[in-house]
Amino acid sequence: MAWTLLVIAGLLEVGWAIGLKYTEGFTRPLPTLLTVLSMVASMGLLGLAARTLPIGTAYGVWVGIGAVGAAILGIVLFKEPATLSRLLFLGMMIVAIIGLKATSGH
Questions:
Q1: pLDDT tens readout for residues 27-45
Q2: In this predicted model, what pLDDT tens digit does every residue of 59-71 receive, in sequence order?
Q3: Is 95 exposed, middle or buried (0-12, 13-18, 19+ CB in 10 A)?
Q4: Pair 104, 57: CB distance under 8 Å
Q5: Nearest by Cα to 43 from 13, 3, 21, 2
Q6: Domain around 70
Q7: Contact, 71 vs 21, CB < 8 A?
Q8: How many folded domains does the chain comprise?
Q9: What three-state secondary structure class fits 33?
């Protein structure tokens, strides 16, 4: 159950990271509200997952999911560069996330 909460928390982190772009510096009310709600839910679920998972693993996976997801959505939604080296490093981050999960003992 903790891993499920952690994955959802990571996906919500992607949501609020991308949401920051749409808030336009927190000047747009609806995107700002949705971004803040996503932040609170993401942190709350991370906190619940960290009750049973090691904090280093939980935080690393949470940040990794957020970083990879935000980078991929940045490429798709905002036409950010999708260079070979960038995709290679994103792939390495995915391997690191899987490695943290595999070696966590949970």
A1: 999 999 999 999 999 999 9
A2: 999 999 999 999 9
A3: exposed
A4: yes
A5: 13
A6: 2-102
A7: no
A8: 1
A9: helix
